[in-house]
Amino acid sequence: MANKSFAVIGLGRFGSNIARALAEKGFEVIVIDADENEVQKFSELVTHSFVLDATDEKALRDAGIADVDVAIVSLGQNIDTSILVTLVLKEIGVKEVIVKAINDQHGKILQRIGADRIIFPEREVAARLAESFVSPKIFDYIELSPSHSIIEIAAPKQFYNKTIKEIGLRQKYGVTLIAIKRKIPIIKDNGTTDFKEDILIAPNVDEEILEGDVITLLGRYEDLARIEKL
Amino acid sequence: MKKGSASAQDYLELGQFYMLNQKYSEAIKQFNLALKQKPDANIYYHLGLAYEALNQIPQAKTMYCKALALDPNHKDAQVHLARLNNK
Asked: Span A42-59, mean pLDDT?
């Protein structure tokens, strides 16, 4: 397992994160991209890095791609190239070819031409996060787009008695606070305690988050999930 | 308050004081001390309220149920439990 080798073709956000994670785990990694600047960033981190056209069969062979155990193709929105590269990789005999697809049609074509595994990262991340949102801490959840949503969540303990500015919701966590629902305790005529609910819309950055507050946040799934795990 | 001399009512009032200052975790501690002195529907109701304020809904429901087991006519516990069950 430890000496399994990988090739990552396409160093966009997904590809570069995968390459970095594999290299950090100690695997042999070859990275390929047509952009010299992107490749340059990996020259010290991975085993080999090449600036080349990944549809060029000979160049791929020369780079030793035929011998890797797994090739990961992540070419962003470039469907034609991703299909061509997948074909070439299967042609030169790469054992396992994993390709990032951007939509269903793309996925179907990749399957036809022999990709061993097709992944839809955004969709998979969203599904996994949606799963984590079925948590007792989350009271409501609206999906805005495949990448963004709004959640209503019990404020984490770490936020108690700090202002929105101190917490750094936007700077540190990358989310926007839309509203705070706060329970205001009252004493009733019969001497028992009760509370009424107050809502602060678009609160000021100097507003403190109090114990028991329920906050409504807008942000990317990953960022919201980070807060959910606090 | 002298140690050992506090009654269930004292703890309940202290807990209510914390509640009013939105210190719900502290309030829960006091209500639990009150319960040790005397299990009472009203104390369970207040515990439920503090858990509800902290958004710990399952615990809040349990406390309201306990309040109603001791006093089925506890109006506030009925109202809060019904509201949580409808959420």
From this structure: 92
Report the alpha-carbon distance of residue A55 to residue A196 in Å, rounded: 65
Structure tokens at B69: 């087991």
pLDDT digits 0-9 by tens, B4-46: 567 888 999 999 999 999 899 999 999 999 999 989 999 999 9
Question: Could you give the ipTM of this predicted complex?
Answer: 0.76
Among A22, A128, A146, residue whose Cα is nearest residue A72? A22
Contacting residues of A for B19, CB less than 8 Å apart: 185, 193
Helix (H) or strand (E) holding A30: strand A28-33
How sure is the predictor about A1, in pLDDT bands with cuts at 50, 70 and 90? very low
Q: How far is B51 from chain A (nearest CA, A)?
A: 9
From chain B, the residues in CB contact with A214 under 8 A are 55
In angstroms, what CA-CA distances link B44 with A39, B7, B10? 64, 16, 15
Distance from CA of B19 to the nearest CA of A (A): 7
- The widest CA-to-CA distance across chain B, in whole angstroms, is 43
Chain B residues within an 8 Å CB radius of A181: none
In A119-208, which residue ranges form alpha helices assigned H by DSSP?
121-133, 164-167
In this predicted model, what pLDDT tens digit does every residue of A112-144 receive, in sequence order?
999 999 998 877 777 766 666 666 677 777 777
pTM greater than the 0.90 cutoff: no
Residue whose entry in the numeric block shows the structure tokens 């319960």: B35
- Interface probe, candidates A211, A214, A228, A230, chain B, greatest B C-beta count within 10 A: A211
Helices B75-86 and B41-53, packing angle to 10 deg: 30
Tokens linked to B22:
């939105």
Query: Given CB atoms, is B64 within the 8 Å cutoff of chain A?
Result: no
Binary contact (A194, B42; C-beta < 8 A): no
What H or E segment, with its residue span, contains residue A182? strand A176-187
Radius of gyration of chain A (CA): 24
